[in-house]
Fold:
Amino acid sequence: MSPEQRAHFKAIIEVQVAELSEEIETIKAAIYPNKGGGTSDKVAHISFKQEQNVHFQRHAEATKRLNRLKQAYLKVDTAEYGVCQECEEAIPLARLELMPESLYCVACMNEMGR
Structure:
């Protein structure tokens, strides 16, 4: 991978980290609304709790991805970045464009999913 490509992926990761960090803050606000903003209606409270559980799941997934992106950012200048950890072949650049935190090529990812 060329230095220009590495710089390109670093920029992609920076943008995605910023967007994901903002999304996480929005999710946190939905999980923990302002005190006194709740409802005394039991049905509305049950609905809120269900929505809160969905937000907890979204927060967990977003946090995991954020951590993977930060790890990728640290590796982008090394020979490890862009190389499948399973087959040690280059991960296609198109895949890295979509998921710069990818550790595996599509073929190995599919094999592991089976």
